[in-house]
Amino acid sequence: MRASSLPLLMKCTGAAVLPCVEGKSEAAEKAADWGTMVHYWAQTGIIRGPNKRAERALEKAIEVAGVDRLSLWPTGGVHEGALSIRVDGTREVSRRDDDREGWITGHYDYQYWLFQDVLWIDDLKTGKFYPNPEPGDERHIPDIAVGENRFPQDSFSPQQKTYGLALSELLSHDGPVSVSTTHWPRLPLSYRHAEPMRSWVNYSRQEMLTHWRALELIYEESCKNRRAMLGHEDELVLRPGDHCRFCPVRDCFVRQEFA
Description:
259 residues, alpha+beta, Lambda Exonuclease, Chain A, 6-stranded mixed sheet, 6 strands, 32% helix
């Protein structure tokens, strides 16, 4: 399992076992190319994209937004690293991109020490910002203010929390862990040309260990769903909701009303 899939799997482990749509749309390919280019700039300070047009677009965004890479991510930190954490009951961590059964793997974007004893993990997100429209629009969500992100990049995401857990284990750190998300969306253009938005959350050592158990439960349920697919269990465990909009499984029979 990939760490990036955890926000969805925490809500419905069916996404881990049901057949997914293969391939990406042209829009998804462009978004992925943009994300790769921005992450490379964050790591190196160099703009190198899929074509000159994309590179000029990023140059303009940096200039108009007034983004200073060194103020967003201080020097002395570690940019981009692979992490894997074992969740099948035997607790191990690794700095490899480990795709073995029973492991969750991913890549964190930035790691730094705050005040010498606080581990900081930052995740750079370039996904679209979805501003909440005015009342009357069918997309309006009444529980949040007009203009706020309808599908925000969440600092409480289990993806970032997993990176914090894995790194604290690898570094033998039993103190607090700060996890942040830096959201610099590709679209809409007005948000690309604005300063990136960063949100924070802090975790204790006990909260990190509790999260490890939560990951083990996800794995246990996904194994149950696999057995159900093979006819060895009574039924699949599926939990439909708004998260179905982002699920790669397109023919799930319980997601239709949320598609």
